[in-house]
Automatic annotation (TrEMBL):
Classification via PROSITE patterns: ABC_TRANSPORTER_1, ABC_TRANSPORTER_2
Keyword ATP-binding belongs to the record: yes
GO CC terms, sorted: membrane protein complex
Family of this protein: Belongs to the ABC transporter superfamily.
Gene3D superfamilies named among the record's database cross-references: P-loop containing nucleotide triphosphate hydrolases (3.40.50.300)
Domain ABC transporter, first and last residues per copy: 7-235
CDD domains reported for this sequence: ABC_MJ0796_LolCDE_FtsE
Pfam families: ABC_tran (PF00005)
The name this protein goes by in its record: ABC transporter
UniProtKB keywords: ATP-binding, Nucleotide-binding, Transport
Claim: ATP-binding is one of the keywords in the record: yes
Gene Ontology MF annotations: ATP binding; ATP hydrolysis activity; transmembrane transporter activity
Amino acid sequence: MKNNVLMQLEKISKTYIMGEVTVEALKETSLDIFQGELLVILGPSGSGKSTMLNIMGGMDTTSSGRVIFGDEDLSRAGDSQLTRYRRNEVGFVFQFYNLIADLTARENVELAANLVENPLSTEEVLMEVGLESRMDHFPSQLSGGEQQRVSIARAAVKNPRLLLCDEPTGALDYQTGKLILGLLAKINRERGSTVVIVTHNTSIGEMANRVVRMRSGEITEIIENETTVSPERIEW
Ligand SMILES: Nc1ncnc2c1ncn2[C@@H]1O[C@H](COP(=O)(O)OP(=O)(O)OP(=O)(O)O)[C@@H](O)[C@H]1O
């Protein structure tokens, strides 16, 4: 593996069989993900973006093909190896924040910090996402944007090598969405985490080092951006 490649997807396919209907969500798709890059995956609904992200994160398995992370072959990994991979290497941010309702912001983040050997400081990460005055609030006492910041802090406190985000701004208004993208860009820049953002919003591609376009389970185009635009300057 080239030494700046963090993850390799080699001809991965994913087929769902439901009775008589077969859906080919991914068709022999290959992609190298580079260390420290910010990658945006674009494509219409049903093009296979989330399936690919879930496979990258060890939350789903392939029907065929190989998934290589460092010197691990995740496509041949058992449950315990995949659990260790998800815990130690990957942070997830979803459209809906999936916070635990009866834990405070601080406790939600601490729960994730306790999973790994060398977490960052819960307080510091909550401060970085601008929640210093909200640490002891419960999710129901926070706005959607604030809840998404908690979920970013929860992912970032593990200091993961890979931060995977599935439509992170999908449930947020325009200004709040841009703030959230700014936080993801900051984690990429300052902590060096490789960040992958799945979205159907083409404008978000402007903040990426590379943009991957998908259609019908295949990558149709990979664009390298010579310059990146900071999220506050992106318009849609
Ligand atoms: N668990 C599943 N069982 C059956 N089919 C599935 C499953 N998950 C995804 N699919 C199908 O696989 C295809 C790709 O879905 P996927 O969610 O990866 O697309 P997407 O590009 O992320 O779409 P969206 O933008 O709407 O989230 C779709 O046709 C979808 O219906």
